[in-house]
Design a protein that fits this description.
alpha/beta; eight-stranded parallel sheet; two-stranded antiparallel ribbon; 13 helices; 13% strand; globular; binds NADP nicotinamide-adenine-dinucleotide phosphate
């Protein structure tokens, strides 16, 4: 069975591609080495290639590259003939204490994006000092005002998400999505109730770091570990431990006409009912990630991947 060309974003009338592109790396010098390993032209061609391949959903945030990712998107959306769906995020910095802070942050995001309104606005983290209710209710007002088409949250646990859903419901606004870390190597949402609650309430689980920051591509090994911050995050011993899983991803990919480990890992996330948003720094990565669409793993293959990844789970 093929994947559909679009899927609804939660219980809204917004349609998105079953896989999006994450833009954290678009302009981020600290974590992703923007400006050294890749440049503005790479980012622009990642966007153009993704759109040409039918990927129309882009995830960004005000904090990515300190506004650079939103500016890149704004520039490219203005030039693109293809309509795209843009998701951005509000960061609850501890000095943001009034509701008006969210409206101001959104206005600045819209300016960088060159948009009058945004398709999906997400609360980046459920962090104090303000309660989740406080920001969720402010978000509901921005939907009512027409500045935001759909309301989303990120990094919310099942209880926080249910509460946000209930609160928005009183305003007649559906909670469209919860964006959380979900990959073969981090299947916590299957165990902590988030995935089940999303299914029950019709909320889209947007899966971030679905390639486990590149590990599931199979290109990183104990002999060739990733550099920078990822080098400390993923030990050589762990890179050795995931080898059998990478082997299985490769084997399954072969049975699907030569799909890569990354494409199989992304298809697995889609088959679980989530919308993965792999980061792509250049055209080649965008093209490759688009190859996760248009086909599906069998139930037996999903079960085999579940079993092989079980002992490799990261906290
Ligand atoms: N809400 C949140 O708190 C949160 C947190 C994290 C991420 N996110 C979102 O999720 C998106 C994706 O997560 P992520 O960037 O952390 O991790 P990811 O998607 O698992 O990995 C992305 C990285 O993997 C490598 N890669 C991607 N596609 C590849 C391909 N086809 N072939 C080879 N290498 C490939 C690239 O890095 P290298 O080439 O350097 O290996 C790329 O930057 C972000 O961009 C962001 O939009 C949200």
């Amino acid at each position: 069975m093929n994947s559909p060309a679009t899927v609804p974003l939660g219980r809204t009338n917004i349609l998105i591609s079953p896989l999006g592109i994450g833009t954290w790396a678009w302009g981020d010098r600290f974590f992703w080495n923007y400006g050294r390993d890749y440049h503005a032209d790479d980012v622009r061609s990642a966007f153009a290639t993704a759109v040409a391949e039918g990927i129309t959903f882009f995830d960004t945030a005000e904090v990515y590259g300190m506004g650079r990712a939103e500016r890149f998107l704004g520039e490219m959306v203005a030039q693109s003939e293809q309509p795209v769906v843009i998701a951005t995020k509000f960061f609850p910095f501890p000095w943001r204490l009034r509701r008006a802070a969210m409206r101001r942050a959104l206005k600045l995001s819209l300016k960088r994006l060159g948009l009058e309104s945004v398709d999906l606005y997400q609360i980046h983290f459920p962090w104090p000092p303000r309660s989740t209710d406080f920001w969720v209710s402010a978000l509901g007002e921005l939907v009512a005002e027409g500045l935001v088409r759909a309301a989303g949250v990120s990094n919310y646990n099942a209880e926080q998400m249910r509460r946000a859903h209930a609160l928005l419901q009183t305003k007649g606004v559906p909670l469209a999505s919860n964006q959380v870390h979900y990959s073969l190597l981090h299947r916590a949402p299957e165990r902590n109730g988030v995935l089940n609650a999303c299914r029950e309430l019709g909320i889209t689980l947007i899966a971030y770091s679905p390639l486990e920051m590149g590990l599931l591509t199979g290109k990183y090994t104990p002999e060739n570990p990733p550099g920078g911050v990822r080098n400390r995050r993923y030990s050589r011993a762990y890179l050795a431990r995931i080898r059998p899983l990478i082997g299985l991803l490769r084997e399954i990919g072969q049975a699907h006409g030569g799909k890569t480990p990354a494409q199989v890992a992304l298809n697995w996330a889609i088959c679980k009912g989530t919308v993965p948003i792999p980061g792509a720094k250049n055209a080649r990565q965008a093209q490759s990630n688009a190859g996760a669409l248009g086909w599906r793993l069998s139930d037996d293959e999903i079960a085999a991947l579940d079993a092989a990844s079980e002992p490799l789970q990261r906290p």
